[in-house]
Amino acid sequence: MKHEICVVNDFLTAAHREKVCAAAERHGYTVRFFETPEAAEGQLGQCEILYSHYPDLLRQAPELKWYCCSFAGVEPYMQPGIFPNEECLLTNSSGAYGVTIAEHMVMVTLMLMRRIMEYQASMARREWIQELPIRSILGSRITVLGTGDIGSNYARRVKAMGAAKVVGVNRSGGSGEPAYDAVYPSARLEEVLPQTEVLAMAMPSTAQTAGILSRERIALLPQNALVLNVGRGSAIDQEALIEALNAGRIAGAALDVMTPEPLPADHPLWSARNVLLTPHISGDMTLGWTCDKNVDLFCEDIENYCTGRPLIHAVDRTLGY
Amino acid sequence: MKHEICVVNDFLTAAHREKVCAAAERHGYTVRFFETPEAAEGQLGQCEILYSHYPDLLRQAPELKWYCCSFAGVEPYMQPGIFPNEECLLTNSSGAYGVTIAEHMVMVTLMLMRRIMEYQASMARREWIQELPIRSILGSRITVLGTGDIGSNYARRVKAMGAAKVVGVNRSGGSGEPAYDAVYPSARLEEVLPQTEVLAMAMPSTAQTAGILSRERIALLPQNALVLNVGRGSAIDQEALIEALNAGRIAGAALDVMTPEPLPADHPLWSARNVLLTPHISGDMTLGWTCDKNVDLFCEDIENYCTGRPLIHAVDRTLGY
């Protein structure tokens, strides 16, 4: 066994590489860096640990014992048979994206509440129109669907801005995060929706989250409801959402994820009423902090792996996160 | 003396009127409400207290003892001879606008940092472009010029979102607000500007603030600097700002106030590089909380006025705020 770590990620700076090398060498591992999956082609035969986000590389690494995904969402890795052996460990980089995605979510919450798209349109015509009725995070009731790193970073920010009630909803109904005024299990989602002014969705793609915001549940939202989604597009019945937006049954939506991506040019979502679309960039790897944290999380688990401790960013492959 | 309060404001709900009446009647005052200055024409002869935002009404109220301005900015009232008598008290509604304007400022900070205008442009073309380098409030150095209600509400929000250093700058160099890591007097502004990533301006229009962000001071800002202004357009050398933006010497600006307002259709500010213009709506009276607070502040000072205590929202007419 050669004790080899391979890194196939394009966002690492020289400082990041040094950090990975230092963590590896402490335990007698060597590290090989590849900028692209093409460069790694045929090079992973001895690889024991792989840090990457290209699922296709897995079948080239027969000796793999641990795959660290540099993304938070790991749904491509849930397909049966994708790992070279069933014992191979999987970790993700949940924890690196909470800050940047939460800042995105605060931004789009305010953009929708403050009618900024309408103001931008009138200003683009060089017209000076004022007095569109606006709303505030202060005093709002906000429901966070998915209370992981991303949802909880958002919850802390809106709570600090004076949201009246921040309710978390997750599988178990529990959370250690004090920013939530209450946390409900997803079985009680229907109770929360009628009192929800902002529904902020930040869930992984799993069998349980697919279609969780169904047509029936969209119908439970009040007319002033805003829907945000930064998790996966599959969580929403997108056709029903478009209908609710266009009929004015809900007030607006900000979607960083949708189905499919990229969205085809003729898709009806583009022209839905009061929808703010962004091209899956809320967790953008161009933010230095995100990259630093991503590498830190990996190095932390190198230490755990090499000293026989459990990997703290381990994904439960039966749950999908 | 008839002990008469006149209210010339169009934003009051029935509940607001009841609240004002209750506060007035407790001390033997009657209240007359007018939706518009036209409706009040010729009706203010006996008015002792006027709650409004129309400076022209002042010369119709010879008996006036206290004018409560429902706006925060009171520069129109600084002209000599505008009051019917020099003893007339002046209060403003500073305190009602901090929340809504701070939410606006957080929104535009993030819109500029996250390149949202560029993303909106590519999405409008139905193009799926990713990977524009973005920045984060977390870890940023933010300078707040003007540490009143508005500036401090913004400071608290960006500090809660993890800004690395929040420096306040004001006339005296002091502030009781704990969100500031440091507060400097405006004489030391030049020292702060080179380390400023976001310069957030929230100052009243006074002789001291006019032109405070001069051409020379703009030149001290680093190339990644973002400039926000929600105070008054007169605080900035606007021509120099446009030049700095267009030359790429600073990164962007979000201006809710400018000179003149409304901005003429052929003004070069419309097409300056990476400028986000809004039509002086950050302190929009359509936000319920702002209106509630505005009325609360007035009622609080009715109590003070009638019991002979100092008015807590009094404007120092020599300073202009």
From TrEMBL, chains A, B:
The keyword Transcription does not apply. CDD domains: 2-Hacid_dh_1 (cd05300). Pfam families: 2-Hacid_dh_C. Keywords: NAD, Oxidoreductase. GO terms for molecular function: NAD binding; oxidoreductase activity. Residues 107-282 form the D-isomer specific 2-hydroxyacid dehydrogenase NAD-binding domain. Gene3D superfamilies: NAD(P)-binding Rossmann-like Domain. SUPFAM superfamilies: Formate/glycerate dehydrogenase catalytic domain-like (SSF52283), NAD(P)-binding Rossmann-fold domains (SSF51735). Signal peptide: none annotated. This is D-2-hydroxyacid dehydrogenase. It comes from Oscillibacter hominis.
